[in-house]
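Morning!

As promised:
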Amino acid sequence: MAVVNTIRGIGRRVVNAVWRIGSASRFFFLILLYSGTSFQRFRLIIKELFSAGVMSLIIILVAGLFVGMVLGLQGFETLKRYGSESALGSLVALSLVRELGPVLAALLFASRAGSAMTAEIGLMKATEQLSAMEMMAVNPIARIVAPRFWAGVISMPLLAALFSAVGVFGGYLVGVVQIGVDEGSFWSQMQAAVDFREDIMNGVIKSFVFGTVVTVIALFEGYDAQPTAEGVSGATTRTVVTSSLAILMLDFVLTAIMFRGN
Amino acid sequence: MLNLYFWNAILSPTTLVEIRDLNFTYDKRPVLQGINMIFPKGKLVAIMGLSGCGKTTLLRHVGGALKPTKGYVKMDGQVMHELDRKGLYAVRRKMGMLFQFGALFTDMSVYDNVAFQMREHTDLPEEIIHDLVIMKLHAVGLRGAQHMMPSELSGGMARRVALARTVALDPMLIMYDEPFAGLDPISLTVIGDLIRRLNDALGATSIIVTHDIQESLKIVDYVYFMANGVIVAEGTPDELRASDKDFVHQFVHGEMDGPVPFHYPSGDYRQDLNLRA
């Protein structure tokens, strides 16, 4: 009997997971369908850009600086063994624009902006604000959800770019200013190694995909939350956990597609 | 159960909302069974009953938020559950709904909350919206609170702002979901008085879902009593005060025991206390 119950439990979880993925996909299409209002009244997106993007700047910039500094230290220690300290600039820049910038910025974005979006929309649901909007003949997906979605999609690549830029500066501070790597070779190696299309654009595409996925997960979890304190709290946790896993899994898939054999 | 009020209303062209043989089942549990109600234009009608008797579910049917299992709700000649989203939104523009705790938009000031529908549904210039918002806030006595945020308001004030927002576009039908819940005696009287005055001033029709019997009977024209998803009594406030039906008597007079028992069904008391018979 215990085995049957276990199998039933697993089956229920799988069905539930498939159901939620289907609901989230439908929700995503509804957002796209009702996005017209957001672009007709762009100030709605600008307001959310401030909440999601500008308010995430501090954490992104500080984290980017420290990640760049750590890369500078670690990279120098490794490159020194091969006598290639001058390649520090290219190591720091490639690591950041290809990988760490998009991934870490997305993880931080999910924790800060994503969880805030879920909590805000979940609370709006719990306090009947979304129902009130429906009763006023105003579509909450068009008025509340879509502007937040586009704000997330727009701000994520910008935040990732800033993360990488500040990270490069952190690497420069440690590598050139503190350790004494030649400044000319630091920048020239970086310029020679980093390709705009192969590296920077692929990084931008990654952060665009991460921004889309994180924002959809955050908005769906908020919109689908049980309208109770526990429901909103659980939805916020799920946003961070699901987004983080999705980012890391998608990063592998995108990296495999983009940099295969390069 | 069909009395003079019902027949007068159903035969009159002035009926705004008609509910006919409404049934709703949720998760195999019948929530509403064979509900027939009439809401004539200009009248203030209360739907009363204990918590969980199906009042709010009924209101959600009137707003088109739920589809009935059987029967229909007709608002201004249109069957609500047959409307598509566009049609439903068109009908909802003729409605206003006051939610139990106001449901004010917490990221907007009092002024912006009241202006919300005007900005969403009309092309009125901001100067005219300003004047309309001020007039609505003045009507509920909160013109001086226009710059405040919802978090700065007391429960009674929030309910009044929500009322101003509800009537922002002068709706034909105003629905109130437990408008008196959690209010102090002064706010309770103020809200009750405002509901009556706004209904008469706007020439609107109002439906109040409540279990606050004393306050409601002072202001409404007609009352439907519900229990377990069916209508158990109806009449004017005077008729209900004089009613000898057990349920109505217990409800109107707030008696602890009666058709609605004090004790939730349970087993033998002595057995629960582990005492021998």
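Chain A has a mean pLDDT of 93.

Hope this helps with the figure draft.
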